[in-house]
Amino acid sequence: MTATSGFGLTGVSFAYGETPALADLDISLQPGKFYGIVGPNGCGKTTFLDLLTGTKSPDQGSVTFMDRPVAEYRRRDLARLVALVPQDFAIDFAFTVQEVVFMGRHSHIGRFASPGAEDWRQVDAAMEAIGISHFRDRFVNELSGGEKQRVVVARALAQHTPYLLFDEATSSLDVQYTMQIFNVAKKLVQEEGRTVIAVIHNLNLAAAYCDELIFMKKGKVAAGGPTNTVLEPAMIKKVFGVESRVVFDEFSNTQQISFRYWS
Amino acid sequence: MRQSGHTIWLLTLSLAAATFGAIVYATGMGHIAVPGGDILRVIAARVTSNSALLAGIDPVIPFVVFDVRLPRILTATLVGGGLAMSGVIYQGILLNPLADPYTLGVSSGAAFGAALALVANLSLMGHFSVPLFAFTGAALTLLVVLYLSSFNGQISANTLILSGVIVGAILAAGISFLKYLADEQVAVIIFWLMGSFASRTWLDVGVVTVALLCGLVLSLYYARDLNILSLGTRAADTLGVESTRVRWILLLSASLVTAVCVSVSGIIGFIGLIVPHLMRFLVGPDNRKLLPVSILAGALLLLAADTVTRAVLPVEVPIGVLTALIGGPFFCVIFRRRQRRAI
Fold first, then answer.
1. I want to staple A133 with a disulfide (CB 3.0 to 4.6 A). Which of A50, A127, B103, B264 is the partner?
2. Is A99 in the B-facing interface, judged by CB distances under 8 Å?
3. What is the pLDDT of residue A1?
4. Where residue B37 falls among pLDDT bands split at 50, 70, 90?
């Protein structure tokens, strides 16, 4: 394993009580890339992200971020470097959209300080990028699932971190908003050298946006590497157990997968 | 309905003024009516030790004001504020707008402790044995509930509510058993359970003040963190909140404030549920604004209720019964109205 300034996992295992979730992971995630994590339901993808953010600590092995153990970071410091769009985004309290996006600035604002000009700029820019500015004064608990999810993405963008983690950040969104969010993320990677690590269920989406893919199965890495090399029918068959074909599609200008649905 | 920043300041200030006014006004009410000016003079005389201010006032008045009415009135006010504050914190941490200070079974624990002291006729600590047993019962219950619901140092909202319900149910059975054992003594237990501020002392005022101030400082310090905790643990963690630590600190302080309140006054329902709920309507869910407003409104409400039962009604109705009888239907109306709006 080479020295890394991104994330480094060495011999990482994690179990929920007696049930192993991740076993003996060795992964290095370099800065400036768009990573896709793919794998069947329950293969440990969310747990993997939890280890990166320090929400969970490995039972064995070490997780480092910028050459320092994640556990050594104070949450506040880590929150200025790594943002997460979590899978669950239920909110029962009537905060406005803008208030929730502002929570992304929590780690940047002193405990009893008021938000400064930079905080306002980031919040406005995040809402603008995701296209939610026009309903900034609505209450989040009255939004639809998709709208809520976009608010949560904007909140993560407002954190303005070099690393962005997406846990199925577009699961409730239609194709238009899905593309909008992934386009924003891709631009951050290409133009600002930021790093995106996204758990993605839609393989075609992963093929279109990710520089590198990590296939996970039953808590282990089945394969990892540049999208063009690892994305092949044999791997999809091995990990998901379905028949598929991977071809370059001229219209989308990327590799796309077609499946044999039923026959 | 939601008010803007300036209006919220104004609301906070007017609530504070109203609470102060209500304290003075309520002190004048009772068997012996005392005009507001005399009350202020009596207080000023005591504070400045200047007895010249008492000229022309019946010598029994300072005694009535200072040793009979004010301790009770101030205790009711402080307990109202404490219960409302705990309600805000519980609702925030348990991610549930319907949680109240008793959700974790603190009240059942206190009731069990008090009933035990009453049944065993324990008087080893004189006047304080019942409050002390009540507090111990509440604290022990809290420890058991936290032990049941924590796993690897993490606590989740759902397991907390479940553990609270389970432990509460066990204690309720225990209380019934104690009542059964108590025989003729049962009336004392029932009265204690229904809550009362009668014959409170300055010591009660002092204890509740200390608890409330500690709770207030801690909860305001972590108010923004509490806002973010309502987004869920994972989100809070990655937004820079030490969610496990904040949750423990706030849970413990809210519970201890509740335990102190219950031990001096018995079980008074609905204040901790309704006040945060109503105030959230007015000022929104931001705990930095919600906490001060709720504390003041809770104080005002419980003081009003206690004054009604003490000085207005012909017979003193137990305060817990009164708050439930007024608060319950009131809550139903709000609940119904909100439901209709949600559809």
1. A127
2. yes
3. 41
4. confident
Q: Search chain B and give the residue with CA nearest A107.
A: B240
Instruction: Give the gap in angstroms from C-alpha A183 to the nearest C-alpha of chain B.
Output: 23
- Interchain CB contact of A76 with B (< 8 Å): yes
Across the interface, do B280 and A94 touch by the CB < 8 Å criterion?
yes
Interface residue A86 vs chain B (CB under 8 A) = yes
Orientation angle between helical segments B129-149 and B106-119, nearest 10 degrees: 140
A207 phi/psi in degrees, rounded to 5: -65, -35
Min Cα distance A2 → chain B (Å) is 27
Q: What is the ipTM of this complex?
A: 0.89
CA distances to A29, A61, A159, A230 from A24, in Å: 16, 8, 31, 20
* Inter-chain CB proximity B238 and A99 less than 8 Å: no
Contact assignment for A50 to B233 by CB distance below 8 Å: no
Segments making up each domain of chain A, as ranges: 31-57+75-229
Answer whether B84's CB lies under 8 Å from B295's CB: yes
The per-residue pLDDT for range A47-64, each reduced to its tens digit, is 999 999 998 999 999 999
pLDDT for B127 equals: 67
Q: Which of A184, A93, A90, A96 is CA-nearest to residue A145?
A: A90
Tell me which of 1.10.510.10, 1.10.10.10, 1.10.3470.10, 3.40.50.720 is the CATH number of domain B5-342. Answer: 1.10.3470.10
Q: How many residue pairs bridge chain A and chain B with CB atoms within 8 Å of each other?
A: 78
Best of A103, A164, A166 to substitute, by most chain B Cβ atoms within 10 angstroms, is A103
Is residue B302 within 8 A of residue B83, CB to CB? The reply is yes
Q: Which residue ranges make up each domain of chain B?
A: 5-342
Q: What is the pLDDT of residues B294-314, one digit of tens each?
A: 999 999 999 999 999 988 888
State the Cα angle at B117 between B115 and B119, rounded to 5°: 65
pLDDT at A227 over 60: yes
| A93 to B280: CB separation less than 8 angstroms, yes or no | yes
Residues 6+ apart with CB under 8 A from B337: none
Model pLDDT for residues A56-111, shown as the tens digit of each residue: 999 999 999 999 999 999 999 999 999 999 988 778 788 999 999 999 999 999 88
Separation CA B65–CA B57 (nearest Å): 12
CATH class of A31-57+75-229: alpha beta
